[in-house]
TrEMBL record:
<protein>
    <submittedName>
        <fullName>Transport-associated protein</fullName>
    </submittedName>
</protein>
<dbReference type="Pfam" id="PF04972">
    <property type="entry name" value="BON"/>
</dbReference>
<dbReference type="InterPro" id="IPR051686">
    <property type="entry name" value="Lipoprotein_DolP"/>
</dbReference>
<feature type="coiled-coil region">
    <location>
        <begin position="38"/>
        <end position="72"/>
    </location>
</feature>
<keyword id="KW-0175">Coiled coil</keyword>
<dbReference type="InterPro" id="IPR014004">
    <property type="entry name" value="Transpt-assoc_nodulatn_dom_bac"/>
</dbReference>
<feature type="domain" description="BON">
    <location>
        <begin position="82"/>
        <end position="150"/>
    </location>
</feature>
<dbReference type="InterPro" id="IPR007055">
    <property type="entry name" value="BON_dom"/>
</dbReference>
Length: 151
């Protein structure tokens, strides 16, 4: 038995190959003007140059986008480092103050905004904590959420 007749997939591929060969042959016959080898080379060079220019533009665009993302990530990392440094400086300043050093005051910093939380013994101590925090370089504002205890 013939193996191509028993395999429909093989028949399809053989038919496609034959149709492609006929189509290519007819396309060549209908061409009234043949390109010389030099013309074909010139055409290929032009297409390659165009493709290279498009690829260059796409690469430049992608590089610019990557550069923007890198700059944003670096700025975000720098802001986190700055916030951590501000928090440390505020805590150090509070620890050095005679009235505030023994108290537990939570200090959080986000984008230069310092938030103070906890309890202090007087309104003066509360205000002093704000002043110490505001005096630290890089602090844009202070949210004083300290409460005055009755004791």
């Amino acid at each position: 038995m013939d193996s191509t007749r028993s395999n429909p997939s093989m028949l399809r591929w053989t038919g496609l190959a034959a149709a492609l060969a006929v189509a290519l042959g007819l396309a060549g016959c209908n061409k009234t003007e043949e390109q010389t080898a030099g013309q074909r080379v010139d055409e290929a060079i032009n297409k390659t140059e165009q493709a290279a220019q498009e690829a260059k533009k796409k690469a430049e665009t992608a590089a610019g986008e990557m550069g923007d993302a890198t700059r944003r990530a670096a700025a975000g990392a720098a802001a986190l480092v700055d916030d951590a440094a501000i928090t440390a400086k505020v805590k150090a300043g509070l620890a050095q103050d005679m009235d505030l050093g023994a108290l537990k005051i939570d200090v959080d910093t986000s984008a230069g905004v310092v938030t103070l939380k906890g309890e202090v013994k007087s309104e003066q101590a509360r205000e002093r904590a704000s002043q110490i925090a505001q005096a630290v370089s890089g602090v844009s504002s202070v949210e004083n959420k300290l409460t005055v205890s009755g004791g």
